Description:
Layout: E1 2-9, H1 20-35, E2 39-44, E3 52-57, E4 60-65, E5 74-82, H2 86-100, E6 104-110
Antiparallel strand pairs: 1-5, 1-6, 2-5, 3-4
Helix pairs in contact: 1-2
Amino acid sequence: xxxxxxxxxxxxxxxxxxxxxxxxxxxxxxxxxxxxxxxxxxxxxxxxxxxxxxxxxxxxxxxxxxxxxxxxxxxxxxxxxxxxxxxxxxxxxxxxxxxxxxxxxxxxxxxx
Length: 112
């Protein structure tokens, strides 16, 4: 079963630059998850200032450029995982956060 894991970001929170050690640990983790067949794709998401919202209502489309101040949660990055179940997706996410540091990740099933 596929799961989408994504981290939440806060534009007001300042983070330290990743260290070479953190990059090495994350690289090894990504390589392990890929070889295990768990990690299918991953990436970061651009800043809120580059957001575009598309709305469809009453047969009309509205396109509005961000940033959107009402946004309380911003997605910082994402990973598409193939896991046998939700528990396995949680375990891989815990391992990711142990390297990435404090923060919040959410996991949602992906339906084909």
